[in-house]
Amino acid sequence: MNKIKLFANCIPVKGAKRSVICDLQRNELYIIPNDLYEILILHSNKTIIEIKKLYNNEYDETIDEYFVFLKQNELVFETKTPHLFPNLKLDWHYPFEISNAILDFDINSKYELVSGLDQLNELKCKHVQLRFFDTITYNTILNLLNHLNKKNSIILSIDILLPFSSEFSKEKLSVLLSDYPRINSFYVFNSDSDQFITPIRGNRAYIVYLKNKLSPKNCGIISSKYFSINIKSFTESLNCNSCLNGKISIDTQGNIKNCPSMTHSFGNIKNVSLKESLHKKDFKKYWSLTKDNIEVCKDCEFRYVCTDCRAYIENIENQYSKPLKCGYDPYTNEWENWEENPVKNKAIEYYDMKKL
Q1: One-character DSSP codes across 200-247
Q2: Do 188 and 162 touch, CB atoms closer than 8 A?
Q3: Rounded to an integer, what distance in angstroms lies between the CA atom of residue 159 and that of residue 128?
Q4: pLDDT value at 216 more than 70
Q5: Average pLDDT for residues 215-221, to the nearest whole number?
């Protein structure tokens, strides 16, 4: 008789009140009751008849409904030889110390962006976010991109955030996206309206216009819109911190940090190299801090597809506190506006978020 087997890429995750199945191949998330999670984990590789007997045939109808749902969504299959289908290995491996970086720049910045990019290239960093808080010229962006091409940089993708300017028309930005494959996206802030421009290069590059003001305090927002459901992000989140692992940053003053919004600096790029900063005490302090270590998050069914934030936390006296800008409650399964939660008032005041 055929036994039920989850597809290897479909991973159940249990939360306080409900669970999810993360389909890491199709990038889909399915919410399921904790009872079904129990069946899938504790009674895997059994037939449906065997599972029903384990519950004394009291819940046959419910169990049938569960498996109709699982089969319809192609989350399970039937086989006489489940041992021939091993589970997916969920280890995390990355060949280099640094995988991503944020470089902040404004009108008062004194450090050289080119130098920062060159040092990231030496560290084999693949992904860079450039955040310009003041008006930047088209030629400045062009020169940076041409420099990377000339250096044959290992940097594969760049996200560029900048304030709205007539110099950066949709047409000009589209040309840059077409001519420079390294650019993943443009986020244009202080715009008249929110707008998403049709992706370019086969859905790989895009332009987003936002009415919001661009500020270092914009980061750390937790939302289902930002869930990342794939093998790479899931396994990294399972084993490492989903925001800070492999990250290095330079704030507008040239200070080297884990994240520009964090207070602790590991030196200034004017006199300390990025490589030297990596070996300073506590630089990697948060890299292995997973959601399983963070209060409230450890009980959340979304913890391995969600990001994290250690720059802004709900309880400023507890490094294991949940992210300040998360409005989800895994004990009620409800989302709320995090800014209106009175529990967060002290932290909002401490971080001076009311002015945003």
Answers
A1: ETTTTEEEEE-SSPP-GGG---B-GGG---SHHHHHHHHHS-TTTTTE
A2: yes
A3: 6
A4: yes
A5: 88
Cα–Cα–Cα angle for 180, 255, 248, rounded to 5 degrees: 55
| Pairwise CA distance, residues 243 & 228, whole Å | 12
Sign of CA dihedral 330, 336, 337, 341: negative
Q: How far apart are CA 329 and CA 296, in angstroms?
A: 8
Burial of 4 (0-12, 13-18, 19+ CB in 10 A): buried
pLDDT range class, residue 203, cuts 50, 70, 90: low
Distance between CA 30 and CA 14 in Å, rounded? 12
Cα 126 off chain centre by: 15
d(CA 15, CA 300): 5
**Nearest to 88, CA basis, from 26, 12, 4, 10:** 10
Give the chain's end-to-end CA distance (angstroms, integer): 61
Biggest CA–CA distance in the chain, Å, is 73
What is d(CA 258, CA 117) in angstroms, rounded to the nearest whole number?
Answer: 16
Residues in the chain: 356
Residue 71: predicted pLDDT: 97
Render the burial of 134-163: b for 16+ CB within 10 Å, e for the rest: eebeeeebeebbeebeeeebebebbbbbbb
- 78 close to 47: Cβ distance less than 8 angstroms: no
